[in-house]
Amino acid sequence: MPRCIGRLVLGLVLAVAVLNVPAAVTAPAAEAACRPTLKSLTLARSTVTGGSSTTATIRLSCRTPRRAKVQLWASTGIRVPAYVYVAGGRSTRAVTVRTSPTTVRSSGRVKAVYKQVVRRATLVRTATPCYPTPVPTTVALPAYVHAGQKATGTVTLDCVAKTSLAVSLTSSSSWVTVPGTLTIQAGRRTASFTAVTKGPATGTLPAFNVTIKATRNRKSATRVMQVRPEIRSFRAGDRFTVNEPILTPDETEGNEGWFSGTLRITLDHPAPPGGLDVKGAVVPEGKTWTDVPIHLDSYPPDSRVTDHLTITDSAGNVLLHEDFTYIVHRAP
Predict the structure, then answer these.
(1) Which CATH number is 164's domain given?
(2) pLDDT value at position 132?
């Protein structure tokens, strides 16, 4: 009987030992199954306006069995907490990333460190509107204007002016003038100005580009406008061009040895009301060219002909009176 009782007690002891083994062995195994490392650091937005915020997400490689402390660092102009905790049983943590206002586009970094593993993310801050004060962003002007005409331009700020403010205007050409200062009223973002173009008293300006610049608080916006030759009638001091006429032998009886052709004279401005007399030919009002017959008693050896040109208006005023030379070609 005592032997049976001894065996029964031994069996109970062994059973208890067996039941306790899994609890003692499996707990360390569960802890060893998750040894989290810092997997990534990502930003919800990689580019933000200076002064605004975004969210960074810290991600571990697995769920941490107990809370994990992650250290944080950021470049100048970007603010993050010195550290955050990833809660036990979680693998991620969101962090608010704040930025400071800026006048220029700049790039910085956010860094997370956990158990000597480092992850980085780049954050770009764009210029903050109205910081520290409204500045010009655009200048609107027509694509082109003719000399002697006026053009209306508009300056736009990056935000509404809280108080009336002044924007300086400049022109890159002395042929185009703009006001030195443009006032934008409180509560407005835009204001208009007039660009005045002019042409020379005599002759004609070729087409050229002018740059209009609006500046405030060392920030500028520009616009390029083309200034084309003025629209007006031909006047004293204006010019002309001629073609290179083809000369053919004149077969008219009595004109043997002579050569004849047609010289086209083109003015750089249209004829005024009443037209023009150009070397005996008429250029009607609004037109710019005429054909003049030419007759030479011989073909010039150097193919160059010097002639005289007179242009008069309908009132008999002489607008041009000069010698000119043109090149001729023999008919094939």
Answers:
(1) 2.60.40.10
(2) 86
Residues of the chain with pLDDT under 70: 1-33
pLDDT of 150: 96
Same domain for 55 and 112? Answer: yes
* Residue 3: inside a domain: no
* Structural domain of 262: 240-330
- CB neighbour class for 157 (10 Å; exposed up to 12, middle 13-18, buried from 19): buried
Q: For the whole prediction, is pTM greater than 0.85?
A: no
Where among 177, 208, 228 does a domain terminate?
228
- Angstrom distance (rounded) from CA 180 to CA 160: 22
CA distance 90 to 156: 50
State the total domains in the chain.
3
Q: Would you state the pLDDT for residue 317?
A: 94
Q: End of a domain among 228, 249, 284?
A: 228
Residue 254 is predicted with a pLDDT of 74
* pLDDT, position 5: 53
